[in-house]
Write a structure and sequence with these properties.
Strand content: over 45%
Number of strands: 11
């Protein structure tokens, strides 16, 4: 059974930091691109950061220089370090595992991030 379980969300003041984690199980983690998406209230879900199975990570322009995605294949976990948070970073953050070659997509349940003073 495939599971993606996010953790680490919460309420943080502008300029603060959070580290999100996504623990994966039920599939061969190292074969999948791992991504973080977010959905702000009233907006569509958007890709924030992606770490392919092979290659370099990529980021949305809005988070470049502030967010860092990383993965630990030994722990089947992907992380999102978020620094210098802004109110516009508020939203539900979703972990995604994707293997495009086989049209496979897995999603976590999401974790809420709120940036507010």
């Amino acid at each position: 059974q495939v599971q993606l379980v996010e953790s680490g969300g919460g309420l943080v003041q502008p300029g603060g930091s959070l580290r999100l984690s996504c623990a994966a199980s039920g599939f061969t983690f190292s074969n999948y691109a791992m991504n973080w998406y977010r959905q702000a209230p009233g907006k569509e879900r958007e890709l924030v950061a992606g770490d392919p199975a092979v290659g370099s990570a990529d980021y949305a322009d809005s988070v470049k220089g502030r967010f860092t995605i990383s993965r630990d294949n030994a722990k089947n976990t992907v992380y999102l370090q978020m620094n210098s948070l802004k109110p516009e970073d508020t939203g539900i953050y979703y972990c995604n595992a994707r293997r495009s070659r086989f049209s496979v997509d897995y999603w976590g349940q999401g974790t809420q991030v709120t940036v507010s003073s």
